[in-house]
Amino acid sequence: MSGKLLVLGGGGHAQVVMETMISLAWQERIVGILDADPDHVPENPFAIPVLGTDAELEHFPPESTQLVNGLGAVGKDHHRERLFLRLQKQGYQFPSLVHPDAVVARGVRVGAGAQIMAGAVVQVGSVVGENAIVNTGAVVDHDGAVGAHAHVGPGAVLCGGVTVDEGALVGAGATVIQGVHVGHHAVVGAGAVVVRNVANGARMAGVPARELPE
Ligand code: JB3
């Protein structure tokens, strides 16, 4: 892989993304950070500069530049998903990011722009869709499917054969028992234990998890 790399967003998730990129020895290729609010981006320990807003992309065409999505917080307004799709449509490529200290079983398919963070485990037979996040220390056990733009939060556990559809969020430390299906853009709250299928767009919390009212 070659070419320049720009990081979109400079907040909390982007810090983890940049550390992963440095761990992969990509530092020579990282040009900088673009952020919607460039004057308030916290300093990063890697001295990666903030170049401005996404308007700067006009100086970095898709032919020479790839993008890394540093926005997290998928559950809030799907902004991460919309940004990815808009820029992908403009021709930008998003390399997948697998931290060298993640364990990804042989044969696992990892989509464009998917991010598998340090300490995560993705077991045999699983698929991680494009622009999805398997965050720090999360587990996707055998035959799992994490849909495009979905987010498995830090320390969450998907037991065997769990499917999490497009844009859904499984919050930090939640557990989804084997074979359960989580519908698209559903939100499973932190620490919940999901024992039944979750409808599209539903919000679940508790042990065992129950659907929250609108
Ligand atoms: O819990 C963990 C491990 N990570 C959380 C992550 C999943 O979500 C983290 O603790 C935060 O709760 C959250 O991280 P995120 O999404 O990085 O949020 P925040 O720290 O608020 O940073 C978002 C950054 O994106 C801000 O600096 C925004 O100005 C910037 N931003 C928003 N919209 C944008 C855009 N930047 C660009 N380039 N383009 C946009 O459209």
Present as ligands are: GDP-N-acetylperosamine
Strand content: 25-35%
**CATH homologous superfamily (4th level) name of the largest domain:** Hexapeptide repeat proteins
Tell me the structural class: alpha/beta
CATH class of the largest domain: Mainly Beta
Question: How many distinct folded domains?
Answer: 2
Describe the structure.
This protein is an alpha/beta fold. 13% of the residues lie in helices and 27% in strands. The protein has three helices and 23 strands. The longest helix has 12 residues, at 12-23. The chain starts with a strand and ends with a strand. Bound molecules: GDP-N-acetylperosamine. GDP-N-acetylperosamine (JB3) binds at residues 8-14, 34-37, 41, 54, 71-73, 79, 83, 135-136, 154.
SSE inventory with pairings:
Layout: E1 4-8, H1 12-23, E2 30-34, E3 50-52, E4 65-69, H2 74-77, H3 79-89, E5 97-98, E6 103-104, E7 109-110, E8 115-116, E9 121-122, E10 127-128, E11 133-134, E12 139-140, E13 145-146, E14 151-152, E15 157-158, E16 163-164, E17 169-170, E18 175-176, E19 181-182, E20 187-188, E21 193-194, E22 203-205, E23 210-211
Parallel strand pairs: 1-2, 1-4, 2-3, 5-8, 6-9, 7-10, 8-11, 9-12, 10-13, 11-14, 12-15, 13-16, 14-17, 15-18, 16-19, 17-20, 18-21, 20-22
Antiparallel strand pairs: 22-23
The structure holds GDP-N-acetylperosamine.
The site of GDP-N-acetylperosamine (JB3) has 21 residues, from helix 1 and helix 3.
